[in-house]
């Protein structure tokens, strides 16, 4: 049994009602419920008396250090079986880290700890690392985003990484680390005892200066499968270094996020080689990079290579226009593996989307999710989109947000939704103006097709 409640103010009577339910829950999620430290006293008792509880999510509540102190009393009891604890944005400080260290040291069942968006600071996380190094700790995932960490944290993190081969996922995004700290971190990642599979370093002050060291990790650590260095100014030269590491036969990278990395079309030659030859690579995000049509055409050539196994490609806000859509269409008609294409916030226009739909409707194309928000589309392309919706039964998600489709365009989409062969499950229509009559038609459509969700 699971309890999943979000964004609900808790009256005393409602809270008392939920406490009864919690006694038999396996998962409890109470994000954004205006909880405080007093609620944590009750939750501590639930943790203590409900041995089936394995996951507790309390994100975005004002628990404070006192609330965590109450929770940890329950977590330290022998009957506790909690595996996953989420305390993101709960107004915690470094004072909570000593209490959490005790739990990490004494509770081997705890495998995930999410404490991002809290002002733990470098000194607080150093204390957490002491708990992680305890032989009893079996932590596998540690999330420390927005924790006000500095370069001084790396020595403690490296010690934890080297002593804890069970640790598989580490997120340090949105902390002021810088190249020197990243180079030092990479030394720890290269240790034989480190088995990290996921490393997120978004917005950490990385430049091309530390990409050689990251490349060496990619080349030597076959365990690393998920790397995110988005929102760092690595540039084309940094990307070239990363690609050298990823092209090594030992690298088994699957997911690569490079959003807003100051990349240009010059990077697309290296990226194309990576996409066409790295068969483990299934997802890449290039959002908010100035790739332009010339870069996109190179990527499309890579997608047509039989060795490419890419399943998800994110290209929002990449300076693309109608001019690249013929190449995209050709790639869609050739590549059988691509399932997700996010290409919104590019000036594709009606003519471009009509070209895309030609590839989309090809028998080889297996696209399930297509995002075309803010692409300067009008009602003129909606008949073609409607045909694709009806023809392509694998298509289950479509985003047309922020396009001036008006009543005429929305009605064409509705016609497609009424066809039995249309399998769309989610239609996203943010920031589009339509009449009250069309609004009624959209609501009626949702009622007639319970499997369809229209988001507007």
TrEMBL record:
<comment type="function">
    <text>Ribonuclease inhibitor which inhibits RNASE1, RNASE2 and angiogenin (ANG). May play a role in redox homeostasis. Required to inhibit the cytotoxic tRNA ribonuclease activity of ANG in the cytoplasm in absence of stress. Relocates to the nucleus in response to stress, relieving inhibition of ANG in the cytoplasm, and inhibiting the angiogenic activity of ANG in the nucleus.</text>
</comment>
<dbReference type="InterPro" id="IPR050637">
    <property type="entry name" value="NLRP_innate_immun_reg"/>
</dbReference>
<keyword id="KW-0007">Acetylation</keyword>
<comment type="subunit">
    <text>Forms high-affinity heterodimers with RNASE1, ANG and RNASE2.</text>
</comment>
<dbReference type="Pfam" id="PF18779">
    <property type="entry name" value="LRR_RI_capping"/>
</dbReference>
<dbReference type="Pfam" id="PF00560">
    <property type="entry name" value="LRR_1"/>
</dbReference>
<dbReference type="GO" id="GO:0005634">
    <property type="term" value="C:nucleus"/>
</dbReference>
<keyword id="KW-0433">Leucine-rich repeat</keyword>
<dbReference type="InterPro" id="IPR001611">
    <property type="entry name" value="Leu-rich_rpt"/>
</dbReference>
<keyword id="KW-0597">Phosphoprotein</keyword>
<keyword id="KW-0677">Repeat</keyword>
<dbReference type="Pfam" id="PF13516">
    <property type="entry name" value="LRR_6"/>
</dbReference>
<dbReference type="InterPro" id="IPR041302">
    <property type="entry name" value="LRR_RI_cap"/>
</dbReference>
<dbReference type="GO" id="GO:0005737">
    <property type="term" value="C:cytoplasm"/>
</dbReference>
<dbReference type="InterPro" id="IPR032675">
    <property type="entry name" value="LRR_dom_sf"/>
</dbReference>
<keyword id="KW-0963">Cytoplasm</keyword>
<keyword id="KW-0539">Nucleus</keyword>
<protein>
    <recommendedName>
        <fullName>Ribonuclease inhibitor</fullName>
    </recommendedName>
</protein>
């Amino acid at each position: 049994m699971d309890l999943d409640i979000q964004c609900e103010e808790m009256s005393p009577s409602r809270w008392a009602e939920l406490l009864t339910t919690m006694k038999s829950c396996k998962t409890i999620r109470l994000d954004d419920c205006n909880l405080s430290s007093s609620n944590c006293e009750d939750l501590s008792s639930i943790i203590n008396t409900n041995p089936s509880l394995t996951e507790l999510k309390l994100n975005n509540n004002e628990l404070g250090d006192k609330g965590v102190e109450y929770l940890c009393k329950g977590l330290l009891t022998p009957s506790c079986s909690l595996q996953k604890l989420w305390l993101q944005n709960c107004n915690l400080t470094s004072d909570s880290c000593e209490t959490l260290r005790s739990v990490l040291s004494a509770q081997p069942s705890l495998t995930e700890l999410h404490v991002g968006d809290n002002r733990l600071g470098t000194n607080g996380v150093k204390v957490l690392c002491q708990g992680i190094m305890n032989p009893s700790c079996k932590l596998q995932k540690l999330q420390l985003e927005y924790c006000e960490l500095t370069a001084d944290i790396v020595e403690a993190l490296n010690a934890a990484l080297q002593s804890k081969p069970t640790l598989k996922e580490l997120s340090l995004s949105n902390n002021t680390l810088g190249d020197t700290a990243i180079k030092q971190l990479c030394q720890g990642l290269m240790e034989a005892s480190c088995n990290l599979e996921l490393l997120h370093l978004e917005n950490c002050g990385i430049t091309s200066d530390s990409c050689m060291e990251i490349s060496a990790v990619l080349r030597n650590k076959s365990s690393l499968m998920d790397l995110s260095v988005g929102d760092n100014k690595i540039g084309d030269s940094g990307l070239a270094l990363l690609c050298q590491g990823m092209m090594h036969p030992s690298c088994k990278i699957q997911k690569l996020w490079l959003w807003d990395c100051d990349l240009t079309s010059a990077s697309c030659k290296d990226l194309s080689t990576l996409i066409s030859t790295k068969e483990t690579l299934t997802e890449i995000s290039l959002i908010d990079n100035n790739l332009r049509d010339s870069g996109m055409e190179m990527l499309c050539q890579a997608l047509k290579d039989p060795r490419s196994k890419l399943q998800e490609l994110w290209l929002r806000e990449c300076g693309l226009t109608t001019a690249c859509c013929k190449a995209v269409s050709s790639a869609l008609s050739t590549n059988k593996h691509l399932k997700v294409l996010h290409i919104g916030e590019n000036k594709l226009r009606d003519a471009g989307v009509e070209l895309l739909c030609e590839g989309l409707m090809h028998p080889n194309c297996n696209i399930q999710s297509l995002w075309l928000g803010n692409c300067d589309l009008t009602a003129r392309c909606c008949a073609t989109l409607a045909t694709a919706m009806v023809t392509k039964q694998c298509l289950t998600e479509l985003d047309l947000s922020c396009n001036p489709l008006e009543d005429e365009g929305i009605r064409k989409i509705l016609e497609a939704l009424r066809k039995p062969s249309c399998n769309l499950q989610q239609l996203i229509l943010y920031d589009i103006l339509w009449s009250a009559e069309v609004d009624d038609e959209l609501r009626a459509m949702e009622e007639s097709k319970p499997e369809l969700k229209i988001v507007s």
